[in-house]
Specification:
heterodimer, A: mainly alpha, ABC transporter involved in vitamin B12 uptake, BtuC, two-stranded antiparallel sheet, 2 strands, globular, B: alpha/beta, seven-stranded mixed β-sheet, five-stranded parallel β-sheet
Chain lengths: 286, 433
């Protein structure tokens, strides 16, 4: 029983990070109707941003969160203005090719700049913390990652659903032409969606380096999980993606305990099941 | 219409044809040289398919540097190095032809192994291939080299199945997982003689070609050595957490845990041991994960007391003058320590040079025959091996493995006894006190 509790806790903590990663992806899809295949690599770039802050200025990853968030927001805006906007009206194939190209480019640039040698933050503030409650152990890095991810996910959800700008974002996502007639600048909203996705990946990346190694492929697993979470939660649904991210984490933790070699298989299996039974996802509508 | 040819003139023509034929024959012979060597060969190209991007890129870079250092020493010499051909400046029996390393990036993906070999052979015209790194990649790459009939030597990939496929053109200089695992079982037997419980083994391994093959070998040897596998825990190489898997291991209360991981998952393993505050009595690591310098640095104290099997040991190397000279040169050039991977690839290129020298040719058949007949004593290598001599399956019979334990932040040889720097600290937690 204690083992199961430990696995559930671990899974939930990991799932919180999946949730934050997935929210950025679903936001871009919901507003621009475009899938960003380089989303996981934005997280990887954020990890390197946190690493640079630590190695050059000695900043702890927790202190580097705002810097990574702003850096990734700027990167996302640049990406949007430079290569996404020109293909917004194009076919989905063209859009997919562009984001695949971006994925390769980001990995290549990072490998060129930092080499493929894995990096790691040494002695983060939360590194020595280990809490045991009822036999269930949690590290400081896990606590901080999960708490930070939940706060950031909540803030993003609040912004999208409770502010006027957030409602404008949703309006553009539902009907860009109609929103334009209401005086909403859809181009700006597209850029904002990318910037918010940048912020979410920036926060996620800075949180993750407390616990994970940093290398040019470090974002790949989180990118895959984000995609599964977005499909599972319903494309475009912020709450759905967050919920699905948490669920995926828990599934990985529990499956790791009983069928250790099939964690990714289980995640993909659930995804396929949802596609068959409820193709619109957990929170999507037909 | 036709001029009649007199017998004398006909004889002259026959003579002329014979003379031209003779000249052609001489020309053909001279291309093999008076001593039988190809006289027009000035360069020997060695293709190295390696993961130069992707998660195993640091290991690939390390291996490539080992190959480049060997080629440079063969071409330009290294004063004081007493290894065959080390100061001959090229291949003496082949016009002092120089070696050139041509690399190809496999990204560590099995599906890229064959295309990398295709590129190296058809576009780069390499004469022989020395690679790859991951057993799954080596498998597809070696099969393609077999189709193209190009000699292929691996030194890092340790899956026993590779040399059991009946490939004619495939050779392996390094130890197999069987040799590696035997070193662990030998160590366990030593512990048992001291009445230390060492019979219960847990397996924690990646569920890819390398991991499952290593686990299969461990299970088979456990059976023949009267050991008990108390936990069999595979995991996905793309996993983001190994805590649940380590809980499984802990629940089985093993005396030792065999871990098979590449660097990213080796890091997750260390994270999980720290989270669960669980250090098994002994951790014995297979695989490149525990060899990568980046991982070792980042794991820090989390590695203390854990053991690994290696085909090269810095500890042992410092006692061998040639190995020490090569290790110092490597450190000077690349600002990194000579590792098991770079040392194995270095040794393979040096052995390959001797095969080419013996073959006096870059003809694939001649090189293959020379490799088959190769017999290099251990003292002529930088490895703690008995030597390099291939058996019927083209597996080096002289390859050996030693076991090292992380103690006080450095790796110390703890097995076998004849080369051990000290006894293993058991349980591993004792090393952390």
């Amino acid at each position: 029983m204690q083992d199961l509790l430990q696995a559930l806790t671990n899974g939930a903590f990991l799932g919180a990070v999946f949730a934050l990663a997935a929210v950025g992806l679903t936001l871009v899809f919901g507003v621009t109707n475009m899938l960003n295949f380089a989303h996981g690599d934005f997280i990887m770039v954020a990890m390197y941003a946190g690493f640079v802050c630590w190695s050059l200025a000695g900043l702890d990853p927790l202190v580097a969160i705002p810097i990574a968030a702003i850096t990734l927001a700027l990167v996302a805006i640049l990406v949007y203005a430079g290569i996404i906007r020109p293909v917004l009206g194009s076919t989905q194939l063209a859009q997919m090719v562009v984001t695949f190209g971006l994925l390769t480019f980001l990995r290549g640039v990072i490998q060129f700049a930092f080499t493929a040698t894995p990096r790691r933050i040494e002695d983060p503030i939360v590194g020595s913390i280990r809490v045991v409650v009822g036999g269930v152990a949690v590290t400081g890095a896990q606590l901080v990652s999960a708490a930070g991810a939940l706060v950031a996910t909540g803030a993003l959800a609040w912004f999208v659903h409770r502010t006027e700008t957030g409602r404008a974002l949703q309006a553009v996502g539902e009907d860009a032409a109609g929103a334009s007639l209401m005086g909403i600048n859809s181009g700006r909203m597209y850029g904002l969606a990318w910037a918010l996705a940048g912020v979410s990946t920036g926060v996620a990346g800075a949180l993750l380096i407390n616990n994970f190694g940093i290398d040019p492929l470090a974002g790949a697993s989180f990118g895959i999980m984000s995609f599964i979470a977005v499909a599972l939660g319903g494309f475009g649904s912020v709450f759905g993606a967050a919920l699905a991210g948490l669920l995926l984490g828990v599934v990985q933790g529990v499956v790791g305990l009983y069928l250790s070699g099939y964690t990714l298989t289980a995640a993909l299996g659930i995804y396929l099941l949802v596609l068959v039974v409820r193709p619109q996802g957990l929170r999507g509508s037909r | 219409m036709f001029q009649r040819v007199s017998p004398t003139r006909r004889g002259g023509r026959i003579l002329a044809v014979a003379a031209v034929s003779a000249m052609l024959a001489v020309s053909a012979c001279s291309s093999s040289g008076a001593d039988g060597a190809d006289s027009d060969v000035t360069e020997i190209k060695i293709g190295t398919p390696l993961p130069l991007s992707g998660p195993n890129a640091p290991l690939g870079k390390d291996a490539l540097q080992g190959a480049e250092l060997a080629a440079d020493i063969l071409n330009n010499g290294l004063p004081g190095l007493k290894l065959p051909l080390a100061n001959d400046k090229g291949v003496p029996n082949l016009n002092h032809a120089k070696f050139k390393i041509v690399s190809a990036d496999t990204q560590g993906k099995p599906e890229n192994g064959a295309s990398a070999v295709n590129h190296l052979v058809n576009d780069e015209n390499v004469h022989v291939i020395a690679g790859a790194l991951e057993s799954g990649v080596t498998k597809t790459a070696a099969q393609q080299a077999e189709r193209l009939q190009v000699p292929f030597i691996t030194s890092i990939s340790s899956s026993p199945a590779l040399t059991q496929q009946g490939l004619k053109w495939f050779f392996r200089t390094g130890p197999t997982d069987v040799t590696y695992a035997q070193s662990f079982f030998g160590l366990l037997d030593e512990q048992k003689k001291k009445d230390i419980p060492a019979d219960k083994i847990a397996l924690l391994y990646m569920n890819n070609t390398f991991g499952t093959d290593a686990a299969k070998v461990a299970k088979s040897l456990a059976e023949s050595n009267n050991k008990q596998i108390v936990a069999d825990v595979p995991f996905d190489p793309a996993a983001t957490d190994l805590t649940s898997q380590l809980q499984n291991v802990r629940a089985a209360e093993p005396d030792t845990v065999f871990v098979v991981a590449y660097p990213p998952t080796a890091t997750l393993f260390i994270n999980a041991t720290e989270q669960l505050d669980y250090v098994p009595p002994a951790v014995m690591a297979f695989g490149a994960g525990f060899i990568d310098a980046g991982f070792i640095k980042s794991a820090g104290d989390g590695l203390e007391g854990m053991s690994r099997r290696v085909a090269w040991s810095e500890d042992l190397g410092s006692r061998n003058p040639a190995a020490k000279l090569v290790a110092d040169e490597y450190k000077k050039r690349y600002d990194a320590p000579l590792t098991e991977n770079s040392a194995r690839v270095f040794t393979t290129i040096m052995a390959l040079a001797q095969a080419v020298n013996n073959a006096r040719s870059v003809d694939p058949d001649e090189i293959r025959a020379a490799l088959t007949a190769l017999d290099i004593p251990g003292r002529d290598t930088i490895m703690p091996w008995d030597g390099i001599k291939f058996d019927d399956q083209h597996q080096n019979t002289g390859a050996r493995a030693v076991v090292e334990q992380r103690l006080g932040g450095v790796w110390k040889v703890v097995y076998p006894k004849d080369v051990a720097a000290q006894e293993i600290v058991w349980p591993a937690a004792e090393a952390r006190k």
